[in-house]
Specification:
- Belongs to the Fur family.
- The structure is a single chain.
- This protein is about 40% helix and about 15% strand.
- It has about 140 residues and is an alpha+beta fold.
- The strands form 2 sheets. A 3-stranded mixed beta sheet has the order 4-3-5, with no helix packed on it.
- The relative contact order is 0.12.
């Protein structure tokens, strides 16, 4: 399915800013993009889309389920394409590197904890902070 049809299926018009921003996420080397990251890419590509429009489109994409928002250290919101698979994040507190991971045992345990406390779990986010192997070779697991 092409991007125009995907946007239309989500109830959004396939405008130039929406198509361009979606394309940036599809091409990005870094999966997690802030509004400022997207805006810098637009400037580098000499595309005239303002920062306010970037924020508006990112919010629309999040509401439509195209993007997922996360808030890592410092409260800065980052977005990533919603591929439908749940994952959690490891974040280096030194360089900011983000590693995605999935662990079925952790997922089962989180659901059990919610159930044990009478919660009907709707969603959850796990962020683990530490030092990556590149920043601290001595701390790297063996």
């Amino acid at each position: 399915m092409n991007d125009q049809n995907e946007l239309k299926n989500m109830g959004l018009k396939a405008t130039f800013p929406r198509l361009k921003i979606l394309d940036i996420f599809r091409r990005a080397d870094e999966r997690h993009q802030s509004a400022e990251d997207v805006y810098r890419t637009l400037i580098a590509e000499d595309v005239d889309i303002g920062l306010a429009t970037v924020y508006r489109v990112l919010t629309q994409f999040e509401q439509a389920g195209i993007l997922v928002r996360s808030q890592f250290d410092g409260g800065k919101a980052v977005f990533e394409l919603n591929d439908g698979d749940h994952h959690d994040h490891l974040i280096c507190t030194n360089c900011g590197k983000v590693v995605e991971f999935s662990d079925s045992d952790i997922e089962k345990r989180q659901h059990k904890i919610a159930k044990d406390h009478g919660f009907a779990l709707e969603s959850h986010t796990m962020l683990l902070y530490g030092i990556c192997p590149k920043c601290s070779p001595k701390a790297a697991p063996k």
